[in-house]
Design goal:
Helix content: over 70%
Distance between the termini: 54 Å
Mean pLDDT: 90
Order of helices and strands: HHHH
Radius of gyration: 28 Å
Oligomer: single chain
Structural class: mainly alpha
Largest sheet: none
Low-confidence stretches: none
Length: 92
């Protein structure tokens, strides 16, 4: 089972549970206040998922490592390319 299939099947199960609670198919006899909370659960889930995604993105950007050695090597290669092109008559 691929990751997409796992996500889709999990969301499908959660949506079916939510629909059963909204339609009161299980006859649980909960109050109107609880029913209002159940109706807004998808919005809470969306906000929570977005907050988690933004937090994860921010944390990974904060911990992003610079590659000083690779940058220095690239700078040397650019200088070598400029010298080589200058020897062939191209000026930059």
């Amino acid at each position: 089972m691929t990751k997409l299939e796992r996500w889709v099947s999990t969301l499908l199960v959660l949506m079916l549970i939510w629909l059963c609670l909204v339609q009161d198919l299980l006859n649980l006899g909960y109050s109107k206040k609880f029913h209002d909370v159940i109706l807004s659960l998808p919005v809470y889930l969306l906000v929570t998922a977005g907050s988690y995604t933004l937090g994860t993105l921010g944390l990974r950007l904060a911990n992003f490592n610079d590659c000083e050695d690779a940058a220095q090597e690239l700078f040397i290669q650019i200088q070598e390319a400029r010298v080589d092109l200058a020897s062939k008559g191209l000026t930059l």
